[in-house]
Write a structure and sequence with these properties.
Elements (H helix, E strand, L loop, with lengths): L8 H7 L14 H14 L13 H14 L1 H12 L5 E11 L17 E3 L2 E11 L4 E8 L4 H8 L8 E4 L7 H9 L2 E4 L14 H4 L3 H11 L2 H4 E2 L4 H17 L2
Parallel strand pairs: 1-5, 1-7, 5-6
Antiparallel strand pairs: 1-3, 2-3, 3-4
């Protein structure tokens, strides 16, 4: 395999317990295949352009799609997040991910939605994220690009922990409804008030300065070229690609 980047033995040790069991014919080397998937996603390659050292490109693609449908990558992500324990600080934000023409072809009737919408910037998807105080992603949600941050926060709300902590968010999350919902879960909102509020809410300006960590999170995810630009037609495979990037960049790096 020459000098091709590979997942380390220590990284494989962290994620192997969550692999599905192999039935019948033994699977092709997990380390080699997963390293090939990571290489394709990080460098923005077409699957057919994957270096031969990782094995047949059809094997890489079929493993990626099959494990995406089985929810393997999301289970690994959830398990690693759980190992980290309950965070004291949460941060929420969203970012747009531009859809390439290969991802935005016409949707056939009966197929699940692709989570691609039209905004001023063209066709794109929107990634809503909740991270901890270290800027590590805890929850991921993919929606159409035109969906508001506030609605995205509602989708993530059921997954929020129910313990004493702080939620940092920008003005897009400022509403009496969201603040009350957070407090119902013993989460203290640290959200600056929107301009024009009759009764501006208080927030900790010093604590709010930590919000740059979630911006740094998006920057690191977008270093992965198949995350920065969406090439996947199916929403579940694109979210799986984002999940793999989150695992590698933040949880087993």
């Amino acid at each position: 395999m020459g000098d091709l980047p590979m997942l380390s033995a220590a990284q494989m040790l962290r994620i192997e317990p969550y692999f599905p069991l192999s039935h019948g014919v033994p699977r092709v080397d997990d380390r080699r295949v997963l390293s090939g998937i990571v290489y394709v996603l990080k460098n923005g390659l077409r699957w057919c352009d994957a270096p031969p050292g990782y094995g047949p490109h059809k094997t890489l693609y079929s493993r990626f799609v099959r494990w995406s449908k089985l929810g393997v990558f999301s289970r690994i992500f959830a398990a690693l997040v759980k190992e980290a324990g309950d965070p004291d600080v949460l941060m929420i934000d969203a970012t747009h991910l531009k859809a390439h023409r290969t991802a935005s072809s016409l949707l056939k009737k009966g197929l699940p939605p692709r989570r691609i919408g039209r905004t001023k910037g063209g066709l794109n998807s929107k990634l809503h994220v909740v991270c901890d105080g270290q800027g590590r992603p805890l929850m991921l949600c993919l929606t159409e690009g035109q969906m508001s941050d506030h609605i995205g926060a509602k989708l993530l709300y059921p997954m929020l922990p129910n313990h004493n902590c702080v939620m940092i968010g920008d003005k897009g999350y400022d509403s009496d409804e969201y603040r009350a919902a957070l407090q119902a879960k013993n989460i203290m909102p640290c959200i600056p008030p929107r301009r024009g509020r009759l009764i501006p809410a208080n927030f900790d300006a010093n604590l709010y300065r930590q919000r740059h960590k979630v911006e740094n999170l998006f920057a690191r995810l977008k270093d992965w070229r198949r995350i920065h630009t969406r090439y996947d037609r199916c929403a579940h495979t694109f979210l799986s690609a984002i999940t793999i990037a989150a695992i590698c960049a933040f949880w087993i790096n």
